[in-house]
């Protein structure tokens, strides 16, 4: 049974669906004071965006990490990923008419930026140690 659970936990589809439901649910909550269907639209938009960002964030951080060296490798990839994510989230939510844009994107942006920083550090720290030798 643990093998099936491990496979499920490692599945990209599961990660994307979890991001869709969790961050889409957050967006509905963040916009709950506005008349329907605004909260539902915001939730759907954020869910789709979070699913897509989850799918591509790992590969973006990996690609950016290869482009930098030294200490810049530790901060530049997550910063660039965060700024790119924030730009995408703000523009798409503005275009879709989300009433509470900053509240809507705060949690998803914090989660994705934290993931980008931690993942980048995990793949970069070994390269930095090897470079120092």
TrEMBL record:
<feature type="transmembrane region" description="Helical">
    <location>
        <begin position="101"/>
        <end position="123"/>
    </location>
</feature>
<feature type="transmembrane region" description="Helical">
    <location>
        <begin position="41"/>
        <end position="61"/>
    </location>
</feature>
<protein>
    <recommendedName>
        <fullName>Transmembrane protein</fullName>
    </recommendedName>
</protein>
<keyword id="KW-0812">Transmembrane</keyword>
<keyword id="KW-1133">Transmembrane helix</keyword>
<feature type="transmembrane region" description="Helical">
    <location>
        <begin position="73"/>
        <end position="95"/>
    </location>
</feature>
<keyword id="KW-0472">Membrane</keyword>
<feature type="transmembrane region" description="Helical">
    <location>
        <begin position="7"/>
        <end position="29"/>
    </location>
</feature>
